[in-house]
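Box S2. Input/output pair 1.
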Amino acid sequence: MKAALIAALLCVLPALAQTPAAPPAQEAPQARPRVQILTSYGPVVVELEPALAPKTVANFLRYVKEGHYAGTIFHRVIAGFMIQGGGMLPDLTEKPCHEPIPNEAAPAFQGGLRNTRGTIAMARTEDPGSAAAQFYINTADNAALDYKDPSAAGAGYCVFGRVVSGMEAVDKIEKVNTIMRKGMQNVPEYAVRIKSAEVVAAP
């Protein structure tokens, strides 16, 4: 009986040895959320890149979900360059916002995001870590805004998504007449409003 048991085990062991190991578990790719920015010139839908700029995307979505962008304007418009908004009211007072976020321009750039036409990026001051609520949409390829090096001058501006529909509205906004108002240049003569911003499902 002992011999029979050993023989049975010898028959099973080769089969066990040939059983393929389970493949290592892979992380599911991060979903790319979409946000519709409804402007007075029509809707603009942007698709975001949380895998490449996680803190920036989370920050933007926080403002979207809080309703921060409703009632703000595109307060800086430069033809052949970009349109900037999301932080000021029609009277050019700045809307209160949360603490600024770290600049993720370097990892975003290394992941393939560039300041090319149709991309959305964070606006900031000369301080690389000063971005809060304001964003801009590139209306041209603006390589000068990309990450170059860790210095303040080369830190770049963080791209975190791209326009997937409504670029025609962006192009209309880019062509509005601008004036100087309250010491600010390139302000649209007539307010270009953001009526709302909300997360939408991908088609």
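Box S3. Input/output pair 2.
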Amino acid sequence: MTAEFEGPRTAIVTGGAKRIGAEIARALAADGWHVLIHHNRSTDAAAALADEIGGSTVRAELADPGAAEAIIAALDGLPPARLLVNNASRFVLDSASDFTVAGWDAHLDINLRAPALLSQAFAARAGQGLIVNLLDAKLASPNPDFFTYTVSKMGLAGLTELTARAFAPAIRVCGIAPSVTMVSGPQSRDNFEAVHALNALGRGVDVSEIVAALRFLIATPTITGQTIVLDGGQRFLALPRDVQFLEAK
């Protein structure tokens, strides 16, 4: 553990009640962190996870501009905040030809504005620490499926570098960009099994690798403004569509 993370400390994980967020929360708790689990509708799952790992919960709708303030306020009485994981994400299928203003706003509000406001508030509150943004490996070789989602993640990638520059030296900011890790969006289990390992290495990304990347970022005090891409070399294939719309050859 590096000096910036010694002693009692709190990690905020947005969208931390289920799926990848919940596994991140469990891993951080196992490493000695007090975890503040952000959720919106998953109240029961968040409460059960908090009981399991000895964490805390906070409910906030990330599309609300006041969400960051509410999440930071929930740190009162907890150990000092030292880590923010912007994991929560909206992921709804649309295209460049059919996206709507409502869909655009929903993706950008949750996937970009909320992390920006929360990063700003965290940096002011924490004074030192690490912000990790969950991106998407498709940014390394973009395709136009999930159009507004992809635009929002492109923005988040830019936010990652800009805030790394702005918040240095006290706050480090990095990204983790996995390819498909769990069944998501309109994808079926059968399709997931067919395309999960559709990459140069022939090995699908596991949540444990996202956790390992996060632990590496925490343990490496000289890394900032960088994104770890976990895609098995999928970017080398230059896929024309999102992987779930393709079948393994």
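Caption for Box S3: Helices lie at 19-30, 43-53, 67-73, 101-126, 147-167, 189-195, 207-219. The two ends are 44 Å apart (CA to CA).
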